[in-house]
Specification:
globular; six-stranded mixed sheet
């Protein structure tokens, strides 16, 4: 069983520049100042989602609004559906969509656009009751949005692997390129004519990237 293990925070943030670097230089309009940076908790993540409808990640006590456009959301839902159709009949675990909120380390809440969690990662193989459980997915997928920065995505990727994620997929709709990571660096880069597979994490799962990115071309 692999679940997230809280670690003591060692990064020292003394200035706004330090904070923005820690967050990956995300646009300032995504960084919440209420509650004050450094004081936010998981309860604030849930409170803001319930009261305001905004989805926020939590990074070292700072709330960062998640960004996702219509195209990115559509692709995430499409991918989640394909994964669910593979995972559910085999009872391998569960698949989460773009609002699946997970605590992957101490004071760190991340929301992959799509995630797969094997049953072996749940205590006693049962779903947790907490809205933001302390658990790490096997697979995390990100659909890159205009509001994301390369540094932000690189930081998230490193956090994923540090926490125990085994496989990360990053899809770039603008270039129709897919990056497959089994470690934080040196991805396998796939083009639109390639086929993505689940590797050792989801053996037997395949996805035509031409079909996946082709969803952006559908019309009435």
């Amino acid at each position: 069983m692999i679940v997230a293990t809280p670690e003591p925070e060692t990064n020292e943030i003394r200035t706004l520049a330090d904070l923005m670097e820690r967050l990956g230089d995300v646009p300032l309009n995504r960084v919440r100042f209420h509650p004050a940076p450094g004081t936010a908790t998981i309860d604030d993540v849930e409170r803001i989602r319930a009261k305001e409808g905004y989805t926020c990640e939590l990074v070292d006590g700072v709330l960062v609004e998640k960004t996702m456009g219509m195209i990115e959301s559509m692709l995430a839902v499409y991918l989640a559906g394909l994964l669910d159709n593979f995972v559910r009949p085999r009872n391998l675990g569960i698949v989460l969509g773009p609002d699946g909120t997970l605590q992957i380390a101490a004071n760190l809440v991340r929301i992959p656009d799509v995630a797969y969690i094997a049953w072996s990662r749940f205590p006693d193989g049962k779903l947790p009751v907490e809205p933001v459980p302390l658990i790490v997915p096997n697979l995390a997928a990100e659909i890159l949005s205009k509001g994301n920065t390369l540094k932000e995505i690189a930081i998230k990727r490193e956090e994923y692997f540090d926490s125990g994620v085994e496989l990360v997929w990053e899809f770039d709709p603008r270039t129709r390129t897919t990056y497959v990571f089994t470690s934080p660096t040196n991805p396998v880069i796939l083009g639109v004519n390639d086929t993505l597979d689940g590797g050792t994490v989801l053996q037997g799962f395949t996805l035509s990237l031409r079909d996946f990115f082709g969803e952006m071309d559908r019309h009435g």
